[in-house]
Amino acid sequence: MPETAFTLTNALAVVASMLLVFVSGGVVYLSTVEWRDRRRRQRAASPRR
After folding, report:
1. What is the mean pLDDT of each run of 10 residues along the chain (49 residues)?
2. What is d(CA 17, CA 33) in angstroms, rounded to the nearest whole number?
3. DSSP of the chain, one letter per residue?
4. pTM of the predicted model, to two decimals?
5. With the CA atoms of 7, 13, 14 and 20 taken in that order, what torsion angle do they form, in degrees rounded to the nearest 10?
């Protein structure tokens, strides 16, 4: 196998890893925002003491 095939494979592996980190970070961010909004809505709906 030529050496360029290993370079291409490595490049694709790096791109796939970066996409995985990007998508995972986005999911964590959106989950955190949703959790914060849900908590804020619950506090607004509950009667004040």
Report:
1. 81 97 98 97 85
2. 24
3. --HHHHHHHHHHHHHHHHHHHHHHHHHHHHHHHHHHHHHHHHHHHSPP-
4. 0.71
5. 170
